[in-house]
Description:
Layout: H1 8-22, H2 30-42, H3 61-73, H4 80-95, H5 98-109, E1 115-118, E2 134-137, E3 144-154, E4 161-169, E5 176-184, E6 190-194, E7 205-215, E8 220-221, H6 227-263, E9 265-266, E10 269-270, H7 275-303, H8 307-336, H9 348-359, H10 364-375
Parallel strand pairs: 1-4, 2-4
Antiparallel strand pairs: 2-3, 3-7, 4-5, 5-8, 6-7, 9-10
Helix pairs in contact: 1-3, 3-6, 4-5, 4-6, 6-7, 6-8, 6-9, 7-8, 8-9, 8-10
Amino acid sequence: MTTLIESNEHKSLREAVAAFAKTHPHTHNAEDNKRLWQEAAKLGYIGVNLPEAHGGGGAGITELALVLEELGAAGNPLLMMIVSPAICGTVIARFGTEEQKRDWLPSLADGTRLMAFGITEPDAGSNSHRITTTARRDAVTGDWILTGRKVFVSGVDIADATLIVGRTEDARTGKLKPCLFIVPRDAEGFERRPIDMELNAVERQFELTLDDVRLPADALVGDEDAGLLQLFAGLNPERVMTAAFGIGMGRYALSRALDYARERTVWKTPIGAHQAIAHPLAQAHIELELARLMMQKAAHLYDAGDDIGAGEAANMAKYAAGEACVKAVDQAVHTLGGNGLTREYGLGRLITASRVARIAPVSREMILNYVSHQTLGLPKSY
């Protein structure tokens, strides 16, 4: 497995996406964002990881992460790439019925439809063992009936359906186990409420209420007895893609800082000549590059079918990218001084946005917990 040096195909893809991204102005509203999404989809970028048999590019998370990173490096990260093709598309491609694949994968790939993902709950966070959204079968019709709440669900207003993580009761043991359901946006009893965020992003966050939402039997994705396996098949790509999101954002901030440091002159010398400016920017670049290496390793492991190895690497990549992103943004703003907080340079908004890479979809502290007991073999404190 060669993850240190990109193949010629990956280099060409990176160059093509970068050229495409640079031809688009920064997206400030939903309409611009939709247009960028659809144009990227027409070029095959949105569905690059989805199966060729269902309209995708037949590649993997490695290529999808590359696309998101380059879009972010040009100042146009598409947050829903983490959700629609990476999480939902992957889960349906791996575990969905043939009908679900035919129904959803081509439209997810060509950009005509989007899917959101709902796992986080007010009292459970992302702890799948404490999720209280439940699904029960109607003994007469065989329908599923979902009840519960979700929070911090991205893009529900623009998604055609939401992949909801619920829990069903095992008739043999009485225990609840996680399962995945496709919930159409217009399902009766499925309500959304926007969350008032300080985050300056085109994609909005929502709280969801499922009040006895009735779904047909075929709304269940995959096997009722394989919930955790299917869930983590989507969560590992989510971590890889969040790393790509953070790395792209960090690269964008760093590029703005470098342009400024080369041009801004004080006492007849560009400020970038001074080590107090140059060294922190160099350190930020190094840390972004290191994070990218771990992200590429995680993506390669996932695409090779090593879910366990990918889980460890994806968590590490997400951690490294989140830290590198925050540091790069902070140093970029600091390099520009007061200009770093002006709308003209577009860096101030990243102060908040960069924190997303640190706290979502899983906090850095929970990743440290994971590495502590899964990798290092230390006992749990919880």
